[in-house]
Amino acid sequence: MLRVPKMAPIERITLFKVPKAEDRARILEQYKVLAKTAVKDGKPYILSAAAGESFPDPRNRGFNISVKTTFASMEDMEYYDKECEAHKALKAVAGPAKEDVLTTYFESVL
User: Fold this and answer.
1) Residues 69, 73, 75, 76: is their CA dihedral positive or negative?
2) How do 100-107 and 39-40 pair as beta strands?
3) Alpha-helix runs per DSSP H in 1-110
4) How do the domains of the chain map onto residue ranges?
5) What is the tens place of the pLDDT at every residue in 54-110?
6) Residue 51 CA from chain centroid, whole number
């Protein structure tokens, strides 16, 4: 029997630059909503999520909200980007408030 290697989960890091404190608070509240409401085929599909204000540090280059989400597969992450209603609601809140955003994703070697 041929075994297909199982992919490691997809780890996604998103960093936002959001100048106004009240906008940062609104975005983080929307992440709380997303964590409770993001579903695919009627079931939760995000394996884990963490979001918060970044600690002040010159190394963060002004990115002041940090988010980490974990998906079982690239397919799930692509669903998140293109179809997830909870993510669309988050983008509606974050889009106008953000000055910049950076997103990267990877499979951990650990």
Assistant:
1) negative
2) unpaired
3) 21-37, 74-82, 85-97
4) 10-107
5) 999 999 999 999 999 999 999 999 999 999 999 999 999 999 999 999 999 999 998
6) 8
Total H helices, total E strands in the chain: 3, 6
Across residues 41-49, what is the average pLDDT? 97
34 and 89 Cβ atoms separated by less than 8 Å: yes
* Residue of 34, 109, 99, 106 whose CA lies nearest to 70: 106
CB 108 within 8 Å of CB 48: no
Whole-angstrom distance, CA of residue 54 vs CA of residue 16: 10
At 96, give phi and psi (nearest 5°): -70, -20
Q: Which of 86, 84, 12 is nearest to 48 (CA)?
A: 12
User: What's the CA gap between 62 and 24, in Å, rounded?
Assistant: 13
Phi, then psi, of 46 in degrees rounded to 5: -80, 120
> What architecture (CATH level 2) is domain 10-107?
2-Layer Sandwich (3.30)
